[in-house]
Amino acid sequence: IKDALSPSEEAALEGPLPSGGEGESTVSITVVGASGDLAKKKIFPALFALFYEGCLPKHFTIFGYARSKMTDQELRNLISGTLTCRIDQRESCDDKIDKFLKNCFYHSGQYNSEADFKQLDAKLKVHEGGRLANRLFYLSIPPNIFIDVARCASRSSSPAKGWTRVIVEKPFGRDSESSAELTTGLKQFLSEEQIYRIDHYLGKELVENLSVLRFSNLVFEPLWSRQYIRNVQFLFSEDFGTEGRGGYFDNYGIIRDIMQNHLLQMLALFAMEPPVSLDAEDIRNEKVKVLRSMRALHLEDIVVGQYKSHVRGGVKYPGYTDDKTVPSNSITPTFAAAALFIDNARWDGVPFLMKAGKALHNRRTEIRVQFRHVPGNLYKRSFGTDLDQATNELVIRVQPDEAIYLKINNKIPGLGMRLDRSNLNLHYADRYSREIPDAYERLLLDAVEGERRLFIRSDELDAAWAIFTPLLKELELRKVAPELYPYGSRGPVGAHYLAAKYNVRWG
Ligand code: NDP
Ligand code: BG6
């Protein structure tokens, strides 16, 4: 162990550990996979933002852990080179960055070596300085090594009295069986209370706001049922392809990458019954209940697509299979549209439509709630034959340019009686001057504070996989070929037929 310590760390370990002040505690956050894309792009910037905002405790240490050889200084260079976060332009940012980096260290080791994790443990102890030690491990690594790391970290980590928590990144398996295996594997070394399964969509401001919208406004909750809602749509699109992540993506596809987690989580929060309280277990109980009331998906309620190359404005945009890390005959979907149903009293018969795709014409994530027609509408003549144009629609724009707006019918000012559709619009950038924190900031802070409300419990995960696994198996067994759509388009036409089958028009 000593070989791994710097001279000052070694001296500290040999002498008596500095005794922490009465009741003082420390938090160490170890980013496992610190050399990777997610660590650079999201985790380190989020940790810095938390530090900047004064949300990290007085005594904290950040460790990067990966196989790549790096010195502490090299890690600091890597972090400071990627701190393109929402606050990097603020005054005193440089000063704060310097202070933050002084708390950042690196340890190189294998993911399956208890000895390497013991060396990390020794280093952590030096920095913990005898205080009550709390440790958070963030597994930002490929899922096939999650269990190795859980084993090594739990067997080699001996913090003084405090808690140990482990954040696990998706994907949590590929289907019900592999997900259950992963859960069993992790639970050999960690309790459910220690496992924080992250779905970063739950940390997005407007997703967190869903419960506030529903349960603290009288005007929405009474309408939140089959009686008034015709259909609900969960839409995700990106205007770029899988560039750089083709190797990962081809093994998963859009249904596992986006629908089974991000969109389904939004759906659960949207459709669950009111929880007994805001306690994590009460909320997660309701999410499990609604997920378990959902029908499993089958081929007749899905359309899959894959983007192909397209030339626009003299620029050639690559097709999915042009990526060298993707097999040229891949049938992995980069687009899917699905119709889901919740068989309970509140939602019986209401189609919940999902659409998710890469390399489409725009980037957006939205929830669209289309309401029923007004019975006996006195003004129906003002809308001609297309009564669908007269129904209310509530749009929750999760990103970009966050907004919540309600489409209503309104009289056009003047002497005549003409109506139009206008928006009651809560546009975040106009209403709130504060910038919106990144989802990873919220979730990291919650993990440090032991708040599990926005993390996925294992029974929730089981219920989510039960909805998608039969479909994923059918797609693989029958080798269903995706409908090709041009890069930058609106996706396959099949999605419109699917919506039409349920009398729905995509928003
Ligand atoms: P990377 O592929 O960049 O891997 C992270 C680190 O893990 C690498 O720097 C590498 O470190 C190590 N590693 C990579 N492949 C292997 C391997 N086969 N065996 C052992 N170690 C390996 O992943 P990301 O940073 O992109 O993602 C981390 C996790 O987060 C993954 O589970 C991913 O699915 C998930 N995720 C990623 C997102 C993203 O935008 N990147 C978004 C959402 C989830 P070294 O070689 O130094 O040990
Ligand atoms: C990740 C997916 O979970 O979410 C990516 O693996 C996707 O494929 C990303 O691009 C989208 O996240 P965001 O926050 O940029 O919408």
UniProtKB/TrEMBL annotation:
UniProt keyword annotation of Oxidoreductase present: yes
Q: Report which superkingdom the organism of origin falls in.
A: Eukaryota
Give from-to of the shown chain within the full protein: 106 to 612 of 620
Its transmembrane ranges are none
What protein does this entry describe? Glucose-6-phosphate 1-dehydrogenase
Please tell me the species this chain comes from.
Adiantum capillus-veneris (Maidenhair fern)
Glucose-6-phosphate dehydrogenase C-terminal domain spans which residues?
212-506
Per the record, the pathway is:
Carbohydrate degradation; pentose phosphate pathway; D-ribulose 5-phosphate from D-glucose 6-phosphate (oxidative stage): step 1/3
Keywords, in A-Z order: Carbohydrate metabolism, Glucose metabolism, NADP, Oxidoreductase
State the Gene Ontology BP annotations.
glucose metabolic process; pentose-phosphate shunt, oxidative branch
According to its UniProt entry, the function of this protein is described as: Catalyzes the rate-limiting step of the oxidative pentose-phosphate pathway, which represents a route for the dissimilation of carbohydrates besides glycolysis.
